[in-house]
Design a protein that fits this description.
Elements: H1 2-14, H2 25-35, H3 40-43, H4 50-65, H5 73-79, H6 85-101, H7 103-117
């Protein structure tokens, strides 16, 4: 019990509400669209505006890395307006590359994970030791 109190103490001290949700693919899409202030039909459409493409790529990334959904590239592509699995693979790789080199983008994606899940535990680069 004492170990648990030590683990939870920092969250209580800082007023951070710790909540974890298992979400479905529609909620992921809707939350990311909300983050980008765009409708799902626009984001999942074929327009090539930078904001929409980025949102589309992040949706593919989050769906691919969600451990509970465990979606294949093909099923993500089908969900995202019948896109090819190679398109989804490209989007996921592109986001992974940006996460490695761009600190501002990494913070944006962390904010999206917090918005979708309420925690960073599902963020692909999260570890027990660092918390990120």
């Amino acid at each position: 019990m004492n170990e648990l109190a030590e683990f939870c103490s920092p969250c209580v001290d800082h007023g951070i509400e710790v909540k974890t949700e298992i979400v479905n693919s529609n909620k992921i899409i809707n939350k990311i669209c909300e983050f980008y202030s765009a409708s799902p039909s626009l984001v999942l459409g074929h327009l090539r505006y930078k904001k929409l493409v980025e949102a589309r790529h992040i949706i593919a990334h989050v769906l691919r890395h969600d451990r509970h959904l465990d979606m294949s590239l093909k099923s993500i592509g089908f969900l995202m307006n019948h896109r090819d699995h190679a398109t989804i693979m490209h989007a996921v790789k592109k986001i992974n590359n940006y996460l490695e080199v761009d600190e501002f983008f990494r913070e944006k994606v962390k904010s999206i994970y917090l918005m979708v899940y309420g925690t960073l535990k599902y963020y692909p680069h999260w570890t027990e030791q660092t918390g990120f």
